[in-house]
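Per reviewer request, we include the raw input and output of the structure prediction for the construct analysed in the revised manuscript.
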Amino acid sequence: MKRRAYLGTLGVAGISGLAGCLGDLPVVGNSETALGEPEQSRGNPSHPIHGDEFPTFTLPDPHAGREVSLEEFEGERAYLLTFIYTSCTDDCGVLTNLLGLVQEDAAEEGYEDDIALLAMTFDPETDSPEALQEYGEQYGVDYEAENWHFLRPETEDEAMELLNEEIGVPAHIGNGDDHDDHDDEDAGHDDDHGDEEHDADDGHDHDDHDQEIHYYIVFLVNEQGIVERSYPNVTDDREENRPQAIIDDVRTVVE
């Protein structure tokens, strides 16, 4: 599946023609962040937001054959982090494609050593190392770039504790059907560069039996381990310019 064709279903046009040099982008943050604080009121979410230190953890990367710790990126590179599971065939694909677009842009613009792309599964019982490998190949992940990691907790309990308690991102896997067809049209959404408050009815995806919950979010964390942006609702098709906005933010942070 081609990343650009897939994101085209969200109305993204011209993403492959992103222009501008890293040096042209302004740094408008403070001593800890490259990006300024979002203009929009962010409420009081439980997950980390702009200016917060992101909690560190260590998880296996089956493809690399080693454990990956967030601490290894400190002082070395920024990272994008999201949460997926391979049987989520629609919205998780958008999340994976979004990281893939950043990986492509990093290769084209020469900052591939300055950014890591991290996708953590929270369904390790289904997502075997082989399943994750196949999933990555399906979405065109460039493993040779050595900046992409599929992270796989050993158990679902470990995944849930990490997501729900340590990071503060709601997630739950049930025994129902895939949750791609959801009824969440009235959920709030933020602008291209803002963080946003979340609650039980905002930013989640539920199936008809409320057996699966997935909060579609991407974190951009700088090389000091500080959150530059948390992007909720990134699969919302009303956010047509979101992929380009995230790429622009990444360029600013790595520069």
